[in-house]
Design brief:
Structural class: alpha/beta
Mean pLDDT: 94
Shape: globular
Length: 256
């Protein structure tokens, strides 16, 4: 089971959109895929139509994170039209405070849950837009990350903060977390000078470490998301299917 965290503490960088579309691309290539919504805001869960699961009473994802040895995460999974989903829950807002109060050790709880998962080729985790304890759980549990960004200067600072946190986690937990792709989202052409400079910076900075993928802003993607699925399930054509498929191929290479 190959696990990937989709993470950036900066909001508005298409993190949930990218998670859904990379999961769909892997599923389209014949893999059994699980998308895990670790964001207390539950955007992925609600976007895919699982509002009832987001409001469900215990046991839920928050319950399982609080006591990972007492719950079977497989019982919380719901079946989607393209891939399965482990939905977020509104109780995860309270979970954040509980984890903060408990120190560093509870950052391994998601990893404990994943140890009880089976039957999937790929698991993608939509991390919350913060550098808090849930995001740390995602980094430790997955050890592979895709990083959605935008072609603007503010994304550079956010990315530097994330990489510093990755280094801290690696030291504390004696692990190795690998970048598997920088996803530059919502790109419009023609590029202005700032966008050109940022794309060059991403490619130079991560040259030899991981590829940089450019995902163009497309109405077809936004429309598919509003309808509760990816462009892979839409009848409307979209040229960015090739980009998401390329990301899926990159992940396959690391899972051989």
């Amino acid at each position: 089971m190959y696990t990937i965290g989709v993470t950036n503490q900066k909001g508005g960088v298409a993190k949930t959109t990218d998670t859904i579309h990379v999961a769909a691309a892997l599923a389209d290539r014949g893999h059994d895929v699980l998308a895990v919504d670790a964001d207390p805001q539950g955007y992925l869960t609600n976007r895919l139509g699982f509002e009832a699961a987001y409001r469900a009473d215990e046991p839920n994802f928050a319950t399982a994170m609080n006591e990972p040895t007492e719950h079977d995460p497989r019982k919380l999974i719901v079946m989607g039209s393209e891939f399965d989903v482990l939905p977020s829950n509104v109780d995860m807002f309270r979970l954040v405070q509980d984890l903060i109060a408990s120190g560093w050790r509870p950052r391994e709880r998601l990893q404990m849950l994943f140890n009880r998962l089976d039957g999937y080729d790929y698991v993608l985790v939509d991390a919350p837009p913060s550098l808090g304890p849930i995001n740390d759980n995602v980094l430790i549990a997955t050890e592979n990350i895709l990083v959605p960004v935008e072609a603007e200067e503010t994304s550079k600072l956010a990315l530097e903060h994330l990489l510093n946190q990755v280094e801290t986690i690696e030291r504390r937990y004696e692990t190795r977390i690998q970048e598997r792709g920088i996803l530059v989202s919502n790109v419009d052409y023609p590029l202005d000078n700032e966008q050109k400079a940022m794309l060059e910076w991403y490619r130079d900075t991560f040259d030899g470490r991981c590829p940089t993928f450019v995902i163009r802003s497309r109405t077809a993607i936004k429309r598919a998301m509003r309808q509760g699925h990816s462009v892979f399930e839409s009848e409307e054509p979209c040229d960015q299917i090739e980009t998401f498929d390329a990301i899926a191929k990159e992940l396959e290479q690391h899972n051989e």
